[in-house]
Amino acid sequence: MHTDQRPSAYTGLDRMPIGGRWRHGSSGTVFQDVNPYDDTVLTEIRLADEGDVDLAYREAERAWPEWAATPATDRAELFLRAIRVLDARRAEIVDWLVHEAGAVRERAEFEWQLVRSGMVEAASYPTRVTGRILPGITPGKENRVYREPLGVVTVISPWNFPLQLSHRSVAPAIALGNTVVLKPAENTPVTGGLLLARIYEEAGLPPGVFNVVIGKGGEIGDALATHEASRMISFTGSTEVGRHISRQAPLKRRSLELGGNGPLVVLEDADLDLAADAAVFGSYYHQGQICMATNRVVATAGVHDELVERMLARARKLRVGDPADPSTQIGPIIDDDQRDGIRDLITRSVEQGARLLLSGEPGGPAGRVLPPHLLLASNEAPSASEEVFGPVATVIRAEDEEDALRIANDTEYGLSSAVYTRDAERGVRFARRMQAGMTHVNDATLNDEANTAFGGENHSGLGRFGGEWAIEEFTTDHWISLQHTLRRLPFGLD
Q1: Which own/partner contact pairs does 361-367 have at CB distance under 8 Å and 24+ positions apart?
Q2: pLDDT single digits (tens) 119-158
Q3: What are the φ/ψ torsions at residue 155 (nearest 5 degrees)?
Q4: Which end of the chain is less crowded, N or C, counting CB atoms within 10 A of the terminal residue's CB?
């Protein structure tokens, strides 16, 4: 193991907050949280077992009635205080993202900003909840529909954007009067959960409102999905695990953001410099480890070859190495299994006929820094048909606009997508025919804004994050009728 400087941040990040107390897990397993670039040990955590999971839910249940009854302005003020804490702790949080998630410094700063935007948005939620008064068909009846908190919300988040992808569920859930049990990915327990808990604790969040359990999904995942106290599961991760959760908890409310296979379509009238910038950014940003990544670049025949040359020129200039070095643009893959899976996918694609135009061997102290790869292939190649989650771009030739649309939609996924054309309205018409939850005209597939509808179609998930859509996801309708005049019912006594 290497022993360079650990991030300076909050102390006590070897325990998990449950009911306002920071506790060691009750399992016999101690997990080493390491820097993916050089295997420096950042912290050691004794993992949770099912008993700890049950305790977290009981504490969340206990805290819920008082938190749900807390005035909306008080809950909003909590988020304003949290923003001040986040600002004060910015450097520490960014350091943790660099060291634990393998994020290059610019990427870590960007994630910090996303979380801050989410806090600003969440501060408005408590006072944006609205109900309705509806006419009744029964004489003298008034129908009211109240928006109410759900209760205890389960959040299960991934390792690739750990702070943001935990927070985008935690923040609206808490703002709207729910309590939370969060399980972050075991690869990123600090940035995925423990830092958030410290931030909200410092901001004054009452004990039990936000609880974190650190453990392996294979050991405590089913206990989280099936616990009787949980009213909703917000999960971000693979489609395979999302299907498993749906089978385990078919009657719970579920918000699922799953896999992606984002197409970026370049039509013959596109600005090729802008399109190449977007393709390279979308394919290689954070080593391609993003659900919205540009998995496929679909270029019409007239611009295909020129676009490939421009992408190659840009990709060759990307600087790979230590994410703590401010000049680095491509850092490490999160772990060995992920790295090996990416390399296997590239090998299988070449064996099935793809042309590998750009490649390189993994480097860095731990051998996880994978240079950018670029392939030319059909839509059936593994690098095109499967979610890569690595620094790999696959360019596919389409005959014309209709063929490009067919190729873009030929996937089981439907998360993010993009189209480049100089004719904006043509782009919108094309975008509306793309089978995806999000399509960006003349922009990259990587977009995330806190006030709009983020989510996918098909096997990419259920539900939406952001803005009024988050308010709907994390609350429920309660119909209450008020009978103002005497109503005579059948079987009533005279």
Answers
A1: 362/333, 363/320, 363/321, 364/37, 364/38, 364/321, 364/322, 364/332, 365/2, 365/37, 365/38, 365/39, 366/36, 366/37, 366/38, 366/39, 366/332, 367/336, 367/339
A2: 999 999 999 999 999 988 999 999 999 999 999 999 999 9
A3: -120, 125
A4: C
Ramachandran region, residue 170 (left: φ > 0; alpha: ψ -120 to 50; beta: rest): alpha
The C-alpha atoms of residue 178 and residue 64 are separated, in whole angstroms, by: 6
H/E element holding 300? Answer: strand 294-300
User: What are the backbone angles phi and psi of residue 429, rounded to the nearest 5°?
Assistant: -60, -45
| Cα 469–Cα 278–Cα 284 angle in degrees, nearest 5 | 90
- 8 A C-beta contact, residue 442 and residue 427: yes
What distance in Å separates the CA atoms of residue 203 and residue 391, rounded to the nearest whole number? 38
CA distance 242 to 217: 12
Separation in Å, CA 391 to CA 117, 372, 488: 27, 5, 70
Report the DSSP pairing between strands 30-34 and 41-46: antiparallel
Q: Residue written as tokens 């390399």?
A: 343
Burial class (CB in 10 A: 0-12, 13-18, 19+), 276: buried
Q: At CB < 8 A and 24+ separation, what contacts does 336-339 make? A: 336/367, 336/368, 338/289, 338/389, 338/390, 339/367, 339/368, 339/370, 339/390
Beta bridge partners, 141, equal 483
Residue type present at position 269: D
Q: How far is CA 410 from CA 91, 251, 414, 467, in A?
A: 43, 31, 10, 30
**82-104 per-position pLDDT tens digit:** 999 999 999 999 999 999 999 99
In the chain the first and final C-alpha atoms are separated, in Å, by: 86
Q: What is the DSSP letter of 109?
A: H
Q: Give the Cα separation of 256 and 142 in Å (integer).
A: 36
Contact 33/190 with Cβ under 8 angstroms?
Answer: yes
How far apart are the C-alpha atoms of 328 and 306, rounded to whole Å? 27
Nearest of 260, 272, 338 to residue 307 by alpha carbon: 272
What is the pLDDT at residue 325? 97
Catalytic residues: 257, 291
pTM of the model as a whole: 0.95
Burial class (CB in 10 A: 0-12, 13-18, 19+), 137: exposed
